[in-house]
Fold these 3 entries.
Entry 1:
Amino acid sequence: MNKLFRSAVIAGNWKMNKTPAEATELINAIKAECAGKATDGCTVVACVPYVDIANAVEAAKGSFIHIGAENVHWERSGAFTGEISADMLVACGVEYVIVGHSERRQYFGETDETVNKRVHAALEAGLKVILCVGELLTEREQGVTAEVVSRQTKIALLGVTEEQLKNVIIAYEPVWAIGTGRTATADQANEVCKLIREVVSSLYGTAAGNGITVQYGGSMNAKNAAELLAKEHVDGGLIGGASLKAPDFSVIISAAQ
Ligand code: PGA
């Protein structure tokens, strides 16, 4: 199966940016930038801070933009101060959720095991998961990228059924490329996205591996998106900084058509 048969997904990760009022503005600006241009060649998602969800869902209503969250807790409810459950997200109109972003792993103590729990909670609630994996610069220099990315992928997917896997997108985000302006070359991105596909094939069979959407993320922008997205194993992008600028995000959406 070649990439034309897989769904392309362009997802913005707003991180800790934008107030609710600014969220409404940015969603409206993305809609305006994309007006009259093709958007049906890929799925477009904006993953926004929790407090922006209501405004983003409202502004995106009836448009091509789907709304995602940036994290989710694994319990359904209870004494977990400051956390948000998958059921809460669904009730707010959220369809996607990022799990295992490297900033969560680096700064908030997320482990492969808690990532796995979050993946399960999200899938059981009916959310689509954007599962992030990627190596640190030291790991790339030590030559263990394949081992790290395979381990992260395998543990995150432990216990996930073949049916549930259809709601999982994997984002390859080399940590050294995130927010640094240092993009992986298109060949580096393609190589690791291919490896992730092979890991999925080894767990679920070739059809599942060939069918899963694998994104690249890490300083993807309006200038480099087309080259990255043209690669056989790169089915989309998870975009941080450039997703906060409607004109740039719209160029990336066009590059995915
Ligand atoms: P960046 O972030 O595009 O700003 O590098 C990507 C991400 O962290 O998802």
Entry 2:
Amino acid sequence: MLKFNYKYMNNQNQKPRILTGDRPTGPLHIGHYFGALKDRVELQDKYDTFVIIADVQALTDNFLTPKKVRDNVKEVVMDNLAVGIDPKKSTIFIQSMIPEIAELTVFYSNLVTVARLERNPTTKEELKQKEKLFKNNITYGFLGYPVSQAADITAFQADLVPAGEDQVPHIELAREIVRKFNEIYGETLVEPKAKISAFPRVKGLDGNSKMGKSLNNAIYLSDSPDIIRQKVKMAFTDPQKIRLTDIGHPDNCMVYYYHQMFTDSNDLKVVESECRTGARGCVACKNQLADNIIKFLAPIQEKRHYYESHPEIVDQIIKEGTAKAREVAKETLRQVKEKMFLNY
Ligand code: TRP
């Protein structure tokens, strides 16, 4: 059982608080679902959940294409609603509409060294993928986005941050900032804990260790049945299995990999043994997988279609969520500024 710092919890309903969220850089895919959204939906009953649509953070590596970020804000909100985030239980808000987060970021910047930011393994990894954008010249904003993320988390005095494994270095930095702030200016901020998804990172259709938009190897929650069939057809399979009767190696096949996620255990045993003995071909195996993915996504897509055809409801959810989030962040900022003698 996790222990929470109830003394500093400033939410009235006394449930411990969660802050989590996504960058609006594209529609969410099944990697997001298993890595984060599934947990998020389950946790919203027990926690006072805040979901950030991190548009400011998205701009740190999409500053050349701000319209793309804007266009994806509502998409990501709809993805969250479609998987079961309930606006009655969870507060969905837009980062750029909470200027208190930007103010906190400035104050926290004094508590973090440049060397500390340069050591962050997640930033380093992302930088490799962004070679074209940054070349060898990383921006101040990109290097510093984990500081801004610490502001996202602490603005809400969050106790828990459910996230994928790649977020651990950022949450660790947030914890360090909190400790330092409290030590220098006096107890003010809640030290957040990471809650890492039990599900490991979902691999891409091509076998790449990461599923991602830029890698073109993702199945999106909003993909139509036709697109899903097309994508599954192109998935990486055991190169040694060419003819139907060839013996297959499920461990070297992305189709089997996804069967493990979408196919019930009895059918899965059949898939595995028929592949190993050469009793099934990859085409049939792919069709079965595509059927199961389509079936799995159907209720999610049904919900998404409802919101797509009622954009005014989505706008209202964002508006109300952001207003509520702002109140919470304002109170944190008030306390922070008081401690820093900035309460003019
Ligand atoms: N960095 C997260 C991602 O890339 C998004 C994010 C922004 C976030 N602020 C956050 C996640 C605060 C958890 C808490 O997916």
Entry 3:
Amino acid sequence: MNTALHAQPVTRSTDTTRKSEIRHDWTRDEVAALLALPFPELMYTAQSLHRTYFDPNEVQISTLLSIKTGGCPEDCAYCPQSARHAERQQAERLMSIEKVLDEAKRAKDAGAGRFCMGAAWRSPKDHDLETVCEMIRGVKSLGLESCVTLGMLTAAQSAALKEAGLDYYNHNLDTSEEFYSQIISTRTYQDRLDTLENVREAGIHVCCGGIVGMGEDENDRAGLIMTLANLPQHPESVPINLLIRVAGTPLENAAPIDPITFARVVATARITMPASHVRLAAGRELLSDEAHALVFMAGANSIFCGDKLLTTPNPSEHRDRRLLAQLGMRPATKTH
Ligand code: SAM
Ligand code: DTB
Ligand code: SF4
């Protein structure tokens, strides 16, 4: 055996495992190069950074509730809640505060640390925002972290949510700036960035990510991650959704994405935003136990638990409990 060879220090162009190296100046080529790394090298880099910032055996658990379902005026091609698609989700009214808090208690009992409420709005009306603020106060009084996703927000609306005690606001960029107009025509990428700025300015933690599998190419995936990683402050939470191809939406026949490509996106998000929680969000029903394990190894450290996302199915509590036990992973207790 050539021992001299074994004694050689390994130099890695991607070895960015020191805490001081949080960057906000990624080029698209750099991100594309990470996405295309040999898989073992990509996993090694992602895992090294993951354990520099987090306990790799912990997973943050959120539960989702749709507090206002369907009838949305926006035309997001992936979304079953748009009123513009042929087969659409039945439009419902804003849920009562009491019902929301019952669901929050149930989520807490099932082990969730954060309760996320979603509304199918382009942006909230001020009188609805007051009701949502009451919901946030109620969720906080149960000892849960709170998160809402309500569409576009003004600075004043963001301040009102902060005042109510909101911890996180979810607002996704969804894809690259170039591909965005093929997915949504009723608002611009800049509209999304403006809301993210309002949320950040109000002092609310940002939850912002995207969707993989909408027909985008590698360059678009690199563009999405580059934009997220070059925000003035990284989103504290980065949900990576695997498209759920819902019948009746324009993307119902989009070509499926394989779990290895998905894991590459998660690993690249982990490397470029090492201190952020990267969430394996929608689409877990499409992933085997082995694919879940791969994505956790790639650096995902957050999931949505509960039988339903907003309108579509999610793995059962039983399956998730069994899987986390099998992997020896445990719920994280605190995120900030
Ligand atoms: N109306 C608000 C908005 O658009 O910001 C909040 C709700 S919206 C449903 C939240 C996010 O869910 C979207 O930005 C998108 O990333 C994700 N999403 C919606 N439908 C999806 C699908 N079919 N598959 C994967 N992710 C989806
Ligand atoms: C996010 O990035 N994904 C969640 C949450 N944030 C709001 C929503 C997923 C929705 C999947 C489709 C549905 O259930 O309607
Ligand atoms: Fe409306 Fe949000 Fe669905 Fe777009 S993603 S149609 S804004 S609920």
